[in-house]
Design brief:
By secondary structure, this protein is an alpha/beta fold. The protein contains 18 helices and five strands.
Length: 354
Amino acid sequence: MFKILLVDDHRAFRKEFTRLPYIKNSSDYEIAFEANDGKEALAIAKEKNIDIIISDIRMPVMDGMELLQALNKKGIRCVFILLSEYGTFEYAQQAMNLGAYGYLTKPVNNSDVEVMLNRVKKLLGGDTVPTVTSDNIDRLTLKLLENAPSSSDLLSSITGDIKAESRSHELLHFTEQFLSSLQSRIFEYTPWLKPFISSRLFVVHEDRLFLNGCSSYLQEKITCIRTELNKFGFNLSPSAQTESIQGICIFILSNILNPDLNSGFISEAFFFNKSYLSQFFKEKMSVTMIKFITFAKMEYAKVKLEEKDTKISELSSSLNFENPDYFSGLFKKTYGVSPTIYQKEQSQLSSLPY
């Protein structure tokens, strides 16, 4: 029998819920524990074996969203179902992004609860889908930013229990949540890199996921993400000391739209002689500073052109190219296709083919 922890600050609601015919007559579920708020529920979840938590969103002390985040952080694995009087898409989307399995709108009825818990029963009785935890995401992010090869081993340990042929809504949700959490954590460490990395890298191709299997699919994704993170060729590791060349590269990317961005502007910011800085940069990066800046501008433009409403003339101007034709020629020289054609091709894709 699966044990349910019911969390709601209204005792009358909890009493009403336990009297629902499906709950009252079920041989599969029992309301084993009750809590008045998220803090009390978290304490119970730490001490007891809970299969399912059904929790209100709005509660004093700790609300449902905060409880869900705390469970993720502690690595406590259970099916989480959210309750609310506010049946809006925004609430549901936020809850699912945080890892909730499902969403019930108050006042609950017996039919909705039956449908939801029948789905849960299939999940709990079928293939094990891992939980996305903050610790795993953080460890993987650091390994990616440090370009450590052992990130593959860590990913395998996270997805190892998933069968290659698994095909379910729960698996899709796990993969979406995994990549969404990874994206957020990467940009927490490297916010200056966000304009240069396509958000499509973190979008799930459902067909490819189920065709290749979760483990293989995520390994492919991680390889693509690693390549993108390292395309500028300098150390991204948050744990490393900020060497001067790392700081210079980050400064360039952070100021890519600054009309004053040139070797003189950078040398003044770092108190270097202009000639020495140019020589130092080329020695460390094996490319001139001008070429690095130009490449960064092209990478920025490439990401912006994924947006169908981006106007090429305005993009060229924002990157401080006086002549849009010169910008277009430079883009074509870099990627083998004009900005116009590239943008048209991107508009036909729902996500990158990763």
